[in-house]
Amino acid sequence: MNVKVFLTSLSGERLWDQDLALPSQLQIMLNVNVLDLKQRSESQAEAPFILTVQYTPSVGQFTAKGKATIEGTKEEIAPLSSGIQKKQIPSFIMQAIGSSVMGELVILSKSLGLPPPLPPMVPQGQVQPKSDGRFII
Fold this sequence. Notes:
Elements: E1 2-14, E2 27-34, E3 38-41, E4 44-56, E5 60-71, H1 74-85, H2 91-112, E6 134-136
Antiparallel strand pairs: 1-5, 2-4, 2-6, 3-4, 4-5
């Protein structure tokens, strides 16, 4: 299967005063919501999404909207529709959306003077990030 991601909207906002230093520790929450999955043809489906990034304490936020187009064989596309009705989005779709949008968010975060919404590089043997999708910088 092939997943193509198209952005329709990208916004970011710095909520922390430019004159103040950012807090020494920030939590970054990344959330991907796939709103629907529509079969466009026997070999193609489309999934509109909203990706949000929020910092705690609230120093900034990002929102990306778009759609993912999934192309594959009839046998590959058919199970996707039944999965969305059960609210089970395949992980490869979520990963494609996250990795495609992340580059844009890194550029936007640099423009706003915020840390990029990437998990920190953790040397082997150290504690891994929390399993709920949050991590601490």
